[in-house]
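Example 3.
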Amino acid sequence: MNSLLTATIFSPMLGVLLLALVPRGRETAMRAVALVVSLLPLFLSVVLFARFRGTGEFEFQEIVPWLQGYQVDYRIGVDGFSLPLIVLTAILVPLVVLQSWKDYEGRVRGFLIFLLVLETGLIGVFCALDLFLFYVFWEAMLVPMYFLIGGWGGERRIYAAIKFVLYTMVGSLLMLAAILYLYFAGGHSFNVTSLYGLNIPQNAQYFLFGAFALAFAIKVPLFPFHTCLPDAHVEAPTGGSVLLAGVLLKMGTYGFLRFAMPLFPEASSVFLPAISILAVIGIIYGSLVSMVQPDLKKLVAYTSVAHLGFVMLGIMSLTPQGVMGASLQMLNHGVSTGALFLLVGMIYERRHTRQIAAFGGLATPMPLFAVLFLIVTVSSIALPLTNGFVGEFLILAGSFKANPITASLAATGVILGAVAMLWMVKKVFFGPVTSEENKTLTDLSFREVALMIPLIVLIFWIGIGPGFLTRKMEKSVTKFIERTTWHPSIGQR
Amino acid sequence: MASVDWTAIIPLAAPLFALLGAGVAILLLAPFAKRIFPVLILLVSALSLVYAFFAAWAGWMSGAPLSLGLLLFDRMAYGFDFVLILAALLTIFLSKDYLPEEHIKDGEYYALILFATAGGMIIAHAGDLMVLFLGLEVASLSAYILSGMKRNVVKSYEASLKYFIMGSIASGFFLYGIAMAYGAAGSTSFTALQKLTIPPAEPILVALAIALILIGVGFKIAAVPFHLWSPDVYEGAPTSVTAYMATAIKTAGFAALIRIVLAVGHIPQIPWTTVLSTLAVLTMTVGNLVAIRQHNIKRMLAYSSIAHAGYALVGVAAALQKNVMAESTLAAVLFYLFAYSLMTIGAFAVVIAIGRRGDQAEELTDYAGLAEKHPYLAAAMALFLFSLTGMPPTIGFVGKFYLFSGAIEAGLYGLVIVGVLNSVVSAYYYLGPIVKMYFQKRRDYALPPLSYTLVATIFLCVFVILYLGLFPSNVFLMARESVREIVF
């Protein structure tokens, strides 16, 4: 089937149509519709993954002319970087629907609609091979996310939603200007594959890279552009946080992998050390700040800053191990942090607070919850046999080759991050049950355990046998390094 | 000037004559219309506009541009006709139920809308500064009266008077400019201005003429610093009239600007890029920054319309590079005026719908909790606001894309960066009503059922904004075709 990828992107929209038809008040039906429809892209993306050969080229390409007068095509395709992220998105959305099964009474329809629209936007971002199309998905995704945060979020949700939109827009609109410049510089084309290796004057490269990098750095978020992230993550509803942390942040790192670096190799080679340093600062800063957070969600949000710092460090190493590690870690962070946000959401549903101080000794009333939480925590702090270990190990190995100093500094970040997480686990789950309310908490229901299982399976699967992923990514990694490495003596390829 | 062959004009200028004729007919019919058929006047004006649209379509399709000296019949003129007619048609549909509520007599109202539209079309077809002035005055005089039509509201009087005084001053500037141009070129026709020698024999006269004319046009399109009248007028005027002024009258203003720039843009001694860029930057920035502070939705949309004139000016500045008009950038301006008209009329349609609660309900706080009670209305408003922000996949995004890409092609990077940062600022205030509608609760209220015409207008705007947001190429190609051959 030729339009498999298009079907994957737009299949969630089918759910939007169906949801609009469900009569008012039939909320369980709405949830069921959303769940079933969200399994569609999951199924399609798994088929894609199975058929994906990992040649390093873009596979499943579809090209349809779109805007005449300007050479804009609907051009999509996937490679080893984007496909795993698409699968990740498709896995997380049904889990979010399941997680929110009991929430938002009276306002379910909107939540589910925006969730599915967001899924289309996210998958589209990862598929787009035309800069115009990419920009459309990139911006369009803001709207559902804005509504999810603003409509179903916490106390300061409006502030967080507006901040999120404005931050993203500053970056992305400057990127739009850069995209337009590229169009006229690159022989009237928005086609990424033909823009790779384009001969762009040095000065222009700096500005263009700057514009792209700013847009992506805000999304990653790279220190010091991270300040909208804690707000957005904390105020977003659980489902929103899961997708924010799980997928949206990856749009930034993916942007560096797909666009900012291979399009402008010379500028990348200049800015690379600076970005590595920012990444290391992010790692250490994120870990330190997360140590002192009183709020569970905020703590997890700040560990994301650290984890994404690792991803950036891996990409900047420009070594096969580092980039492979980064690519894996993008996926791992999505799985682990997505799982953490889901778990935090479950406890919030029971206690309506996320303050660490309000808990203590939760392992007694909720043993199952404690076990799952612990597993996810160790995966997040990269214990061997879990997915996090594979990714971080490769990143550190790769970046040691590139720059031992930044790598050693980053390694201390691993320890700090572990301290933060384990400290939190100790305070929340162990010791005596201090509060009366906590004694009567019910353990996880069947639904809640069921929705965690896929993520737990992935944690160990990637941790023990990542070969099924790395095989498909290898060639793309080589290709990326080939495109991005700049040889001053030879000049541009 | 050759003697005018009137028989040749009739088919070409059919859109114009249709509107003028229908306007006069409505004035004659007005006293008895209600007895014959309640919506007779509406029907006559709508039909005349539809007829004008098809006549303009025939003119556009017939291709070969024709200049009759005083009047020009090229595709660009017909392109502007389309936008003007569409804006007028949508305005008329908005007005049907709004007028009785505001106790506005419908006879002269519809006639004046038609006259104003005809005035705009005269501007678009003008081949001579005097004809252009005539069109400008026809459109403006109609608009002055229209904005004062809420007879029992002081604000409306104030709007009308203010608009009249400021508009007259602008006309004065414009006329002075024409006089100077006549002095320099010996004629007021664009052909004569086109033939001005380089460097001009009377440099000071030419510079003064162009400066004065630009100031006059600047008033009409509410470019900063000539914008001060527009927020008060937009706020005080009946909402449907505001919608009309913000779209059709502004589009006519841009038609005038483009015609003039086309005629005298070849004079390299005038720093065109600097002048137009400065105007664009000021207009965008002031419009957007002041809009943030507004609590009244009509005022907010007024400042937003100033800002959008700024974006369109970016296009005009970019189109005129090295004293030649770039085809696709000029097309981008035309496309943007069309896109902007659609989203603005849509937004004002919602303002009218909300205003149907009885009180004025023009404050932003009146929008609180709308999404719960009226989800479709709120969704439509959200779409219009997102489109005004320039979010894909809406026509607002595509329009800005075309404009800014033209400016990048022209090498005006600084202007584009100011433009995109302005879009970020605008996002802030456009999100304001959305926050209110979706994320805030308020006392219960219910709107009376909306009229079919209003619903149809809103639905049409929604559909076109989304459809052209996804598939704009045909309309854009048509816009480009419109500016391919321009006559003088």
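The first strand of chain B starts at residue 66 and ends at 67. Chain B has a mean pLDDT of 89.
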